[in-house]
Design a protein that fits this description.
heterodimer, A: 233 residues, alpha/beta, Rossmann fold, 4-stranded antiparallel sheet, B: 623 residues, mainly alpha, ABC transporter involved in vitamin B12 uptake, BtuC, two-stranded antiparallel ribbon, 3% strand
Chain lengths: 233, 623
């Protein structure tokens, strides 16, 4: 469904992604693993085109995304949840959801505000609160819910468990598994190997913007040297 | 009592147009973070388009539908014009530094001025009366125009409608979201480019409605765009940038104040509103309902600065050679050329002082003429009233301007970015209106005359040398300051205020001192000016004069001191030729817009880049 081929991305002169290639299949949940600064967020941003790759191609169901404005990428069915959440602090929870609302899309689950409140009950209680008056965990749920309002067929989750209380991480894992059960394709970047193993089918490990491992968690468990070399334990 | 009520109602009626215009500016600023200096132009366009439509439509639709239909249609037409400006001029420069955006919208002002002149001619036009609202109501015996009452009744509904649009509709939600984080809005599938265009069109339409609605009370003329900038900025600053209710409260406050000012203190009408603004800002630096601006919050940043370096050997030789040529010129040239050169040196010093605060300090001052004219007036007042000899009066020019800069800076330095720009502009308008209206001392627009240099300096050639020596010394002084530790501290504060603070630099203090220095040197240029011309008029303090300097610095290149000097020379040289053309504003405006979009480094920067490419200049030698 999603395919990256030889993607090279830069911040100014810094060469962040170096010939990165991988693919994500339909209905799959893939974990993108790597240390701080390995290029996980840049990979996400290079897909949604907030960062524009200098070369290489990113295709969704065969359609080229590189060079398109972000709003078109989003409308083609990719939902992006940024790592720093970026909720609209001066808007209420309901208004935040409204910003994300897009028409129904064929071949993707259709979300309503009510369905999202069922998925994240905490948000319902806070629906008329301003974004800035929410805890970190609630903000994280709100960003995911806001993105789901766009009815994506592929969800990009950038470090959803970072800086969040364990109890909320557990709720998040639960929610992601439910999304998976509905047939959503998910790519999730993580430093937390435990969390990744619970929700994902496959692991991709990157270091310095290049791919170092691509396979199941069982294969990864059989190669402790890879884990030791590229993941902070 | 009746008189009091009548005044109050007139003030409230005047507030309608001002609020419409200010709400448009506020809306545009809230979303795009651009202070649209051309907003007054859309106000003016609204008045002209309104008059034209009011002449045509009533014949087709009948008097009532004709009049009100003309107003509605005016908004649609001017809104489209606003959309066009946004797409052509602003879209390419949303990520550029603030100064570029401000200068680009100034280019739009010039273009619109000449277009309006082409279409509607130079004569003032009277606005038509509103049908069925020609008479007056008698309230407590005082006559109140019926149209005023209608305006008073409409205004709250406009506020309510705007509020509902922003608070209750999907468009409003998207607009507010984009105000905070455009990139995220785009990542959620919203085409924010059209959102921006839509907001800009709406803002322009609001301004044009302000222009069209005031027609029955006034009319249309070619100065409307500049004349509304003062009150407009005062209203937005007092109300708080981006706040609609703030704009409403401030528009009412200023309009009512103005009416009472005219009634009770006709000598100080212009000054009054700036005094109110100053008081509000002392208490609330971001206006009544405004929020604090966090610098850099919206992802605007220019390209990294190239470090400045002292001149290399070749540069020093070139400058020395140029000075030698300038020194020897009187031996070979006509007196007229020397007069022109004197003007150029004075303008170059003025521009260099602006470049210093703007380029090195990163403080976009839009009221620098206050110090130039202020210096000129300081010296001229000494000569006129104390019969001070020229040698001493001349010293009062930088001294007076420096003191003025200390006072104005005390208010302005606390703010940054666009607030700083608008505040400096408003304060320069305050100085201008003081000089303009305090006739007993300044003689108003009759100006101060007979301000000539002492005998040993009179004559074209001696005064040319005097100007050359003072001007060059002034510019060298600025250069020395820029390359001294103080200059480093100033640039540190510009590039990263927080980091500079963490390193122990008192950023605000450094900026305050730099602001005063820039003011003093602008005053020095003003002192040179007044003794060169023998007179000074309030025009030297006008917005236009500040913009002249800004454009010169911008054309020359913002990043180096030589930019201001080169720009001033270039401008003075072409000005004589340019202003003889019929539609020179149009040309200049288009040139400015083109420079902003195509060659943002100005003459000096572009020339150097060309030199680098051709291998004529080595990296290390560049200043």
């Amino acid at each position: 469904m999603l395919e990256l081929r030889d993607v090279n991305s830069f911040y100014g002169k810094a060469h962040i992604l170096q010939d990165l290639s991988f693919s994500v299949g339909c209905g799959e949940v893939v974990a993108l693993l790597g240390r701080n600064g390995a290029g996980k967020s840049t990979t996400m941003k290079s897909i949604i085109q907030i960062v524009r790759p200098r070369s290489g191609s990113v295709t969704l169901a065969g359609r080229e995304l590189v060079g398109q404005p972000s709003y078109r990428v989003a409308r083609s069915g990719i939902g992006y949840v940024p790592e720093d959440r970026r909720i609209f602090t001066a808007l209420t929870v309901l208004e935040n959801l409204e910003v994300g609302r897009q028409p129904r899309r064929d071949g993707a689950p259709f979300w309503t505000v009510d369905a999202l409140f069922e998925l994240f009950p905490n948000l319902y209680e806070r629906r008329n609160r301003l974004g800035k008056a929410m805890s970190g965990g609630e903000q994280q749920m709100l960003t995911i819910a806001r993105t789901l309002m766009g009815n994506p067929s592929l969800l990009l989750l950038d470090e959803p468990s970072e800086g969040i209380a364990p109890v909320i991480v557990e709720q998040m894992a639960h929610a992601i598994l439910r999304l998976k059960a509905q047939g959503l394709t998910v790519m999730i970047s993580e430093q937390n190997l435990h969390f990744a193993r619970v929700v994902a089918d496959r692991a991709i490990i990157i270091e310095s913007g290049a791919k170092k491992f691509d396979g199941s968690f069982e294969e990864l468990a059989a190669k402790p040297e890879i884990r030791d070399a590229y993941l902070a334990v | 009592m009746g008189f009091f009520i009548a005044q109050l109602l007139t003030g409230l009626a005047n507030a309608a147009a001002l609020f419409l215009v200010a709400s448009g500016l506020s809306l545009i600023f809230g979303v795009t973070r651009i202070v649209n200096f051309a907003h007054g132009s859309f106000y003016m366009l609204g008045a002209y388009v309104g008059i034209t439509l009011m002449g045509v439509l009533p014949g087709v639709l009948g008097p009532h539908f004709g009049f009100w239909g003309a107003i509605v249609l005016t908004g649609l037409i001017v809104g489209l014009a606003g959309a066009l400006v946004e797409i052509v001029v602003l879209r390419p420069i949303y990520r550029a530094p603030e100064l570029f955006q401000l200068v680009a919208t100034f280019g739009v002002i010039l273009v619109v001025q000449d277009l309006a002149l082409m279409v509607w001619g130079a004569e003032d036009q009277m606005g038509p009366r509103a049908p069925g609202l020609r008479g007056v109501f008698r309230i407590l015996g005082e006559p109140i125009p019926k149209y005023d009452i209608v305006l008073i009744c409409i205004t709250p509904f406009i506020l309510l409608a705007l509020w509902a649009l922003i608070a209750k509709t999907r468009l409003g939600v998207l607009v507010r979201a984009a105000t905070q984080d455009r990139e995220m809005v785009a990542a959620l599938g919203v085409n924010q480019r059209w959102l921006f265009t839509g907001v800009f069109a709406l803002g322009s339409a609001l301004a044009s409605w302000g222009g069209a609605l005031q027609l029955p009370k006034g009319g249309a003329d070619l100065l409307m765009d500049f004349n509304i900038i003062g009150p407009l900025f005062v209203v937005t600053v007092i109300g708080g940038m981006g706040s609609l209710p703030g704009a409403f409260i401030a528009a009412v406050l200023i309009s009512v104040l103005n009416v009472f000012g005219v009634a009770y203190m006709p000598q100080s009408t212009l000054v009054l509103m700036f005094v109110v603004m100053a008081i509000v800002l002392i208490v609330r630096p971001y206006g009544l309902l405004g929020k604090e601006e966090v610098a850099g919050e919206h992802g605007q940043s220019g390209a990294p600065e190239t470090p400045i370096r002292p001149f290399g050997q070749r540069g020093k030789i070139a400058v020395a050679g140029l000075l030698l040529v300038l020194a020897l010129l009187p031996l070979v040239t006509q007196p007229f050329a020397l007069v022109l050169l004197t003007d150029i040196v004075i303008f170059a010093l003025f521009a260099a002082s602006l470049q210093f605060i703007l380029g090195t300090g990163g403080l976009v001052s839009f009221g620098h003429a206050a110090f130039y004219g202020g210096g000129a007036y300081a010296a001229a007042l000494m000569v006129t009233y104390a019969k001070t000899p020229m040698e001493i009066a001349f010293l009062f020019a930088p001294l007076g301007a420096g003191m003025l800069a200390l006072v104005i800076g005390w208010f302005c330095i606390r703010l940054s970015g666009v607030y700083f720009a608008m505040l400096t502009l408003a304060f320069s308008q305050l100085v201008w209106s003081l000089v303009f209206q305090w006739r007993a001392v300044t003689r108003g627009d009759d100006g101060l005359i007979d301000i000539w240099p002492s005998a040993w300096l009179s004559g074209t050639v001696p005064y040319y040398y005097f100007t050359l020596v003072v001007g060059v010394l002034g510019i060298l002084f600025l250069r020395t300051v820029i390359h001294a530790p103080f200059g480093y501290a100033l640039r540190a504060g510009r590039d990263s205020a927080r980091q500079a603070e963490a390193m122990g630099i008192d950023v605000k203090r450094v900026q305050y001192v730099a602001f005063a220095l820039a003011g003093a040197l602008a005053g020095l240029a003003g002192g040179l000016f007044v003794f060169a011309k023998g007179s000074v008029f309030p025009t030297e303090l006008e917005i236009g004069k500040s913009f002249d300097a800004l454009i010169v610095v911008f054309l020359g290149g913002v990043k180096t001191l030589s930019g201001g000097i080169v720009g001033a020379s270039f401008m003075a040289a072409v000005e004589d030729w340019l202003t003889r053309l019929h539609y020179w504003r149009l040309l200049l405006g288009l040139l400015i817009i083109a420079v902003v979009i195509l060659a943002p480094e100005g003459i000096v920067g572009s020339a150097r880049r060309l030199g680098l490419r051709l291998g004529l200049v080595k990296h290390t030698e560049a200043d």
